[in-house]
Design a protein that fits this description.
The chain is mostly helical. The chain is built from 13 helices and no strands.
Amino acid sequence: MSKKRTFVLLLLIYLIWGSNFSVMKVAITYIPPLTFSGLRYVIGGSMLVIFSLAWGVPLPKRGDWGPIVVFGLLQTTLTYAFVIYGMSFVEAGVSSILIYSYPLFVNLMAHFILPEEKLNMQKVFGLLVGFIGLIVVFSDSSFNLNDTWAIIGKLMIIMGAFVWAAATIYLKVKLSQQNKLQLTAWQMLIGGTVGLIFGLVMDRGLTISFTPLAITALAYTSIMASAITFALWFYLLDYMGAGRASAFLFLVPIFSVIFATLMLNEPFTWRIVLGLFAVVSGICLVNYTPSQVLEADKRYSRR
């Protein structure tokens, strides 16, 4: 595959993930949020499991099922329960910035849990810049303390970022050698199933409207933004390597804010722009150093 086609596919994945926040915002006006989140990941997880088996990926070993279940509960059930419920009260663009701050929490946790990933001055500065960005984004519509639900919604999404970070650390400690497609497929299906059961109980009595728009939004988030994009993602990981493929993951919240402004007419304020810039800058500072970027370029150029 040519480098140009590779980067086109990578950009397409980021665009789909970026637009997904606006689509989810539309979907939860028709389907209660927790039920929607469960449905999305049951459908997406089922498709990924079928795809992985067709691709010849074996079933997890008996001893791996326990850690996969725990990872699924953290990564899918809890993270997206917080995120999707919080999105009921928060704009799609702001939600994406808050949840994609999770690398900041990952680096903070890693300092205390993973001996080989200690903070240095660059990472400390990155954390400071990133968390200042979070405060700016959080304050964009929360200076009005009467808007209690907006504050609660943002806190829930930040909690989702924290749980996502915890899931990432757990992955590094317990499942670092696991086939990533196998792991993603099964944890998504397991986490989605638990989330759907939880959602049906918690959303009991709420109206579910499976309108054509709701079905289209559910199909987009589960099939396009979950199953197909993750299948493409793991294909590119094999070709490019994780470091190179993930280098521009921070584009997702940028695209999310743009799509939310264009699709949902959400406000594009100076606080969102400033906060987004600070969060993205912080993520780049904690995740990348010039030597890492250079080494990734060398590895990719040899392919």
